[in-house]
C-alpha cells in the first residue's frame, strides 16, 4: 500500500479527517525549511505538501507568490527540493509527501529523470497546477510508473459532465479547490463545500482533500467534518513570513511558532470524530 | 496535422502545433477555456458574426490598410523592392485592433460584461479599452508598473477610454507579470469575465483565434501585391514579440513555398548578452501562460526577464505556432538589436515621413541588412505593425544617452 493510501486508511481507522500542510521548499532558507519540514509530523501534519518554487506562480495569491520568491532568492531549486525530501525520509517513513507546483521546472529538469529521482527521494504524490487532465499524461504516466500518485484538482467550475474526465486517471486522493480564485484569498461557505463533497462522492471513492481559503483552526475543524482532509497553505506560509526580520532572516523561535500554529490547526481534527 | 498537404491546418483538436501549444491551465479555468473554444467555433461558422466583424473592420478600424511601395527606403537599402503593409494606419495605430474587434464581438456573444487584458507597450491595452468603450463593456487592463512608467501616454489614453489600469508590481513589473495577474483575476471572476489575450499565445484556442483575426493582414497583402505587381512577393518580414502581426501576415502564405518568410525577434543589447527578448534563438522549449513554446529560462526552468528597447517585444515567450514553424524550418527566425531598430526608426521617419513603432522598426532593420543582397527583382513586404508616436520619448532618451548618434546614418 502506498504511503498516501496507508495514511488515509489509518485516518479512517481513527475516525477523523487529516490535516494537509503546505510549505514552499527552501523558504526562507534551506536550513529553516528543513527544520520546519522535519517538525511537521509531530506538530500535527498528517500529509505534507511541499511547493516547488517557481518564478511565475499564476494560481497563487500574494502569500505563496512571496514565499516562492524568497525560496528562489535563497537558492532553492528542484534538486534542493528533492534533497529536502530525502533528508526528511531518514527520519519519517510514514508521512506522505506531495510535491506541488508548476510544470516548467519539472519540464526543464526532464520528466523521466525527475520521476525516478523523486521516487528515490521518497516523494509519494504530485500536484501540478497547470497540468489539467488534457495535458497531464506526459508526466502522470511516468510518475505512476515510479509509484507516484498524480493528484488532480477539481474546482467549483468542474461540472458533472467534466468530473469523469478529471477523475478518470486520478489516484491517491482528489484535491477539491473550494473557491474559484487563487490561493489564500476568499473562503467558501461550509454549505457550498458540503454540496461539493456530496457531488464529488457520487463520482469517486478516493479520499477528498479540500483546500484554498482555509486559514483558521475553526475552518479546518468544520471542513474535517465534511471531507477526508483539509489543506492549509497560505496561512502557514504567512505565519512564516510574519516571523522574518526586515532583512529576510528568520527571527529566533520562528520554527517553533509555525509548528505551534500547525498544532492549533490539527487540534480540532483530533477531537472530533468525522 | 490532419492534412499533410498544407501547413495551414493547425492546430489539432487539442490545440497543438507539433509539440507546441496546448492548454496548460489550472482546472478552474479549463471549463471556461473549453467554452471559449466552443463559442469561437460557432461564431466563425456563423455568417452573421463574419459580416458584423467585416462591417467594423471596414467602417471603424479603417481596413483595408494600404500596401505602400516605399521608394526612398528601397533606394536607401539599395536592393529589394520594399513594400510596407501599413497597419500603423488602423484606428488606434497598430494591428492590435484587428484581434480586439474579433474578440469583443465573441465576448458579447458569450454574454460577458467584464473584459480584462494584459498589455506591455500599451497598444493592446488601448485597443482593448477602445472596443470596450465602443460596446459599453467594463474594462480592466493589467500593466506592469515598469511599463506604466515608460508608456505614460498610452496609460492616459486607456483611462480616457474608460478603462481601469491596474499596476502589476510582481516580478519585474513587465508584460509577463501583467499576464500572470490577468490570469489570476480571470480565475477569480470566471462567471462574468472574458480575458482578451493580445497575442498568438496562451491556452488553446487563443493562439489560433488571434491568428485568424490577424490573418486579414496577410489576406489583404496577397490581393494588394497581385494588383500592384501581378505576382506574389518573394519575401515577408515581420517583428515578433508574442508574434501576432507576424502570424497574421505569414499564415495566408505558408503554403506558397516560393515565398520566403522572416520573423524578426528583438535582440536587445545582443544575443550574446543576457539582455534580449529572442525566445527562439536564445531560449528553450517549456510551459508558461497556458502553452508549450520556446521560453527565456534558466537551467532550473525559472523564467527570465526579457529585454528590448521596444516594450511590445519585451516578452520571454513566443506564440506556439511560431515555435513549430521554426522547428520545421518554414519560417526563418532572425533578430535585430536595439541599436539596429533605432537606426531603422530614424531612417523610416526621415526618408518616408512615417514614424514606425519601435517594434516594427526591428522588421525594417532586418530588411535593411538583407535587401542589397537580394537584388532589385526581389519583392519584399515588411509589416509596419504600428505607428511610433508612443515611442518618441523613448527614442529621444536613447539617442541622448548615445545609443546611436543622430548623424550616424550610413
TrEMBL record, chain A:
Its EC number is 4.2.1.20. Pathway: Amino-acid biosynthesis; L-tryptophan biosynthesis; L-tryptophan from chorismate: step 5/5. The active site is at 49 (proton acceptor), 60 (proton acceptor). GO terms for molecular function: tryptophan synthase activity. Keywords: Amino-acid biosynthesis, Aromatic amino acid biosynthesis, Lyase, Tryptophan biosynthesis. InterPro entries: Aldolase_TIM, RibuloseP-bd_barrel, Trp_synthase_alpha_AS, Trp_synthase_suA. Gene3D superfamilies: Aldolase class I (3.20.20.70). NCBIfam families: trpA. Belongs to the TrpA family. Tetramer of two alpha and two beta chains. The alpha subunit is responsible for the aldol cleavage of indoleglycerol phosphate to indole and glyceraldehyde 3-phosphate. This is Tryptophan synthase alpha chain. It comes from Telmatospirillum siberiense.
Automatic annotation (TrEMBL), chain B:
It catalyses: (1S,2R)-1-C-(indol-3-yl)glycerol 3-phosphate + L-serine = D-glyceraldehyde 3-phosphate + L-tryptophan + H2O. It is an enzyme of class 4 (lyase). The modification N6-(pyridoxal phosphate)lysine is found at residue 96. Its EC number is 4.2.1.20. Pfam families: PALP. Tetramer of two alpha and two beta chains. This is Tryptophan synthase beta chain. It comes from Telmatospirillum siberiense. The gene is trpB.
Amino acid at each position: 500500500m502506498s504511503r498516501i493510501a496507508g495514511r488515509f486508511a489509518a485516518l479512517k481507522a481513527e475516525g477523523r479527517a487529516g490535516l494537509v500542510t503546505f510549505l514552499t521548499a527552501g523558504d526562507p532558507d534551506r536550513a529553516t525549511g528543513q527544520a520546519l519540514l522535519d517538525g511537521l509530523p509531530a506538530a500535527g501534519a498528517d500529509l505534507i505538501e511541499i511547493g516547488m518554487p517557481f518564478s511565475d506562480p499564476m494560481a497563487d495569491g500574494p502569500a505563496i507568490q512571496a514565499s516562492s520568491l524568497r525560496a528562489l532568492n535563497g537558492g532553492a531549486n528542484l534538486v534542493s527540493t528533492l534533497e529536502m525530501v530525502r533528508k526528511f525520509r531518514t527520519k519519517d517513513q510514514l508521512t506522505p509527501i506531495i510535491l506541488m507546483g508548476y510544470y516548467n521546472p519539472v519540464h526543464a529538469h526532464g520528466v523521466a529523470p525527475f520521476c525516478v529521482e523523486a521516487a528515490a527521494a521518497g516523494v509519494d504524490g504530485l500536484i501540478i497546477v497547470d497540468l489539467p487532465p488534457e495535458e497531464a499524461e506526459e508526466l502522470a504516466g511516468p510518475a505512476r510508473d515510479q509509484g507516484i500518485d498524480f493528484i488532480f484538482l477539481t474546482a467549483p467550475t468542474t461540472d458533472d459532465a467534466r468530473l469523469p474526465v478529471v477523475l478518470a486517471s486520478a489516484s491517491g486522493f482528489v484535491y477539491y479547490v473550494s473557491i474559484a480564485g487563487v490561493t489564500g484569498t476568499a473562503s467558501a461557505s461550509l454549505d457550498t463545500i458540503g454540496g461539493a463533497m456530496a457531488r464529488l462522492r457520487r463520482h469517486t471513492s478516493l479520499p477528498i482533500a479540500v483546500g484554498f481559503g482555509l486559514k483558521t483552526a475553526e475552518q479546518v475543524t468544520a471542513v474535517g467534518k465534511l471531507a477526508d482532509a483539509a489543506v492549509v497553505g497560505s496561512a502557514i506560509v504567512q505565519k512564516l513570513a510574519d516571523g522574518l526580520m526586515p532583512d529576510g532572516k528568520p527571527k529566533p523561535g520562528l520554527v517553533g511558532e509555525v509548528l505551534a500554529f500547525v498544532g492549533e490547526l490539527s487540534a480540532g481534527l483530533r477531537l472530533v470524530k468525522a | 496535422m490532419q492534412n499533410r498537404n498544407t501547413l495551414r491546418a493547425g492546430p489539432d483538436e487539442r490545440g497543438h502545433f507539433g509539440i507546441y501549444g496546448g492548454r496548460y491551465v489550472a482546472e478552474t479555468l479549463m471549463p471556461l477555456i473549453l467554452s471559449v473554444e466552443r463559442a469561437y467555433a460557432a461564431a466563425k461558422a456563423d455568417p452573421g458574426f463574419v459580416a458584423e466583424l467585416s462591417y467594423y473592420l471596414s467602417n471603424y478600424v479603417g481596413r483595408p490598410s494600404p500596401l505602400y511601395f516605399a521608394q526612398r527606403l528601397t533606394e536607401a537599402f539599395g536592393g529589394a523592392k520594399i513594400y510596407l503593409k501599413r497597419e500603423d494606419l488602423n484606428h488606434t495605430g497598430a494591428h492590435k485592433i484587428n484581434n480586439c474587434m474579433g474578440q469583443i464581438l465573441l465576448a458579447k456573444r458569450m454574454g460577458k460584461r467584464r473584459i480584462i487584458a494584459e498589455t506591455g507597450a500599451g497598444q493592446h491595452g488601448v485597443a482593448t479599452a477602445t472596443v470596450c468603450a465602443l460596446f459599453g463593456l467594463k474594462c480592466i487592463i493589467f500593466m506592469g508598473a515598469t511599463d506604466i512608467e515608460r508608456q505614460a501616454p498610452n496609460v492616459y489614453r486607456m483611462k480616457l477610454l474608460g478603462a481601469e489600469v491596474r499596476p502589476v508590481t510582481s516580478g519585474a513589473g513587465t508584460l509577463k507579470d501583467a499576464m500572470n495577474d490577468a490570469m489570476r483575476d480571470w480565475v477569480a471572476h470566471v462567471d462574468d469575465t472574458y480575458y482578451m489575450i493580445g497575442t498568438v499565445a496562451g491556452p488553446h484556442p487563443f493562439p489560433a483565434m488571434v491568428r485568424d483575426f490577424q490573418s486579414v493582414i496577410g489576406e489583404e497583402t496577397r490581393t494588394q501585391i497581385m494588383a500592384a505587381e501581378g505576382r506574389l512577393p518573394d519575401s515577408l518580414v515581420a517583428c515578433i514579440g508574442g508574434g501576432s502581426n507576424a502570424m497574421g501576415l505569414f499564415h495566408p502564405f505558408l503554403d506558397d513555398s516560393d515565398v520566403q518568410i522572416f520573423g524578426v525577434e528583438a535582440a536587445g543589447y545582443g544575443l550574446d548578452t543576457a539582455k534580449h527578448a529572442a525566445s527562439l534563438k536564445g531560449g528553450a522549449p517549456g510551459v508558461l501562460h497556458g502553452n508549450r513554446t520556446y521560453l527565456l529560462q534558466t537551467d532550473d526552468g525559472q523564467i527570465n526577464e526579457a529585454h528590448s528597447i521596444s516594450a511590445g517585444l519585451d516578452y520571454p515567450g513566443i506564440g506556439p505556432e511560431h515555435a513549430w514553424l521554426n522547428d520545421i524550418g518554414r519560417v526563418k527566425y532572425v533578430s535585430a538589436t536595439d541599436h539596429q531598430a533605432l537606426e531603422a526608426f530614424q531612417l523610416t521617419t526621415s526618408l518616408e515621413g512615417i514614424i514606425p513603432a519601435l517594434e516594427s522598426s526591428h522588421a525594417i532593420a532586418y530588411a535593411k541588412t538583407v535587401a542589397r543582397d537580394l537584388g532589385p527583382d526581389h519583392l519584399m513586404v515588411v509589416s509596419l505593425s504600428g505607428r511610433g508616436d508612443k515611442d518618441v520619448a523613448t527614442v529621444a532618451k536613447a539617442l541622448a544617452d548615445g545609443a546611436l548618434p543622430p548623424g550616424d546614418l550610413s
